[in-house]
# Entry
Amino acid sequence: MTAVNIPKLRVRAKKVQNLPQCAIEMSALATCWASISVDDKRCAETAKALASCMQKGKAPGAKRSSVNYHLARLGKQVLGKN
# Structure
């Protein structure tokens, strides 16, 4: 029996760029400060929204796909490699 070279199977997930946590609130506060003033009281509500977002903590990360793991595991069984 001759050895057959079978290429490794790979599935690459699409890379999704997530916004950093509280990026929208931080951007809104920076915009408010730039358009009015850093010391103006009209930006207080935006600052409170940013503070409450930061108090919530880090959001749980997305679960990674295990397709490549299973392809590698099954490939070893199919090809007879250990």
In short: The chain has a mean pLDDT of 80. The CA atoms of residues 28 and 46 lie 7 Å apart. The helical segments are 23-35, 44-56, 67-79.
